[in-house]
Amino acid sequence: MKFIEYEKLYPLKFHPIYMERVWGGTMMSEVLDRQLPPHDAPIGESWELVDRDEVKSVVANGELSGATLNQLMAFYGSRLVGVKAIGKKNFPLMVKLIDAGERLSLQVHPDEKACELLGNGAEPKTEMWYVISSRPGAKIFAGLSGRATKIELMDMLDSPDVERLMQTYPSQSGDAYFITSGTLHAIGAGNLILEIQQNSDTTYRVNDWGRLGTDGKPRTLHKEQGLKSINFTNRTSPRVAGAVGTKNFNRKFDVVKLCPFFKVSDLRLCSAWGDDTGSGESFHLLTAVKGKFRIGREELTAEIIPGETVLIPACFGRYSIEPLDTDEAVIVKTTL
């Protein structure tokens, strides 16, 4: 692979990696007009940005086409990811699209303390969901209700009635949910979600609603690990309400602000928005939700459509986000 000088780095796009899931849906093609590859089981996830030993994103545009994200990490180091991620072997975040044709399992991700207790390669995961689109009646289940007890949860864990112990929300486009590690959760059917998460693939399913896997057998549950991972003291609402109405001027809303793993903003744009990676503290990830965008500066630009994510290297400096075809375009920005 021939690399370019870091001064010539540009906004990077990556090929999506599609994952078959028994609960997968059709909203990626219906809402985002994605041309999905042939598949035997439903497509439930698109890994838009990933750098793990078992799967790695590949650059889709420009001179670095064909390079993996991990190869860029190894060659450019902090020039790519910023000083906040110095020393990391892998890119610190993952970006996914979740297409829920059916309700996902009731599950939990461990925090660092639980990972130390459980071992077996467990990795902590805090994540954020941004609702791109939802069908009428779609729901989000996120966090235990204020009155639910551990004993009640253990008694009802094998029953579909366990959902009565959950904080339940009607799903609405533009809403976000900050799912800290230790939060019991499930994405309801009829949701198309942008997920920003720590680079982890550890999930403990505690109830799968009686569903059978693609092999016709019940999927494995992880009740013991899950119960050891749930934070029973956290009953705060994880919902971050989306912006109301449209305006004829640019707006920025903080979605996730006080988090050590990532920060997320919701940008509502009617005209070009100037931004800057500054002194190279962190890369910027920009995901189009509504409308098309041209991102970059001078000849170093990339265009993205809804559902696509672009990576702005930490060394890039000043750039613009220009909406191309809608009255108020929406883009989600993520940094460390």
- Quantity of strands, as a count: 22
Which sequence of strands runs across the widest sheet? 2-3-4-11-6-9-13
| SSE pattern | EEHEHHEEHEEHEEEEEHEEEEEEEEEE
Strand content: 25-35%
* Rg of Cα set: 20 Å
The first-to-last residue Cα distance is: 28 Å
Q: Looking at the structure, what is the overall shape?
A: globular
Structure description:
With 336 residues, the protein is mostly beta strands. Helix content is 12%, strand content 34%. The protein has helices spanning 27-32, 69-76, 78-81, 112-118, 150-156, 223-229, and strands spanning 12-13, 17-20, 43-49, 93-100, 106-108, 127-134, 139-144, 166-170, 176-179, 185-187, 191-198, 204-207, 239-240, 251-256, 263-269, 273-276, 284-290, 293-297, 300-304, 309-312, 318-323, 329-335. The strands form five sheets. The protein has a seven-stranded antiparallel beta sheet with strand order 2-3-4-11-6-9-13. The model has no long low-confidence stretch (mean pLDDT 96).
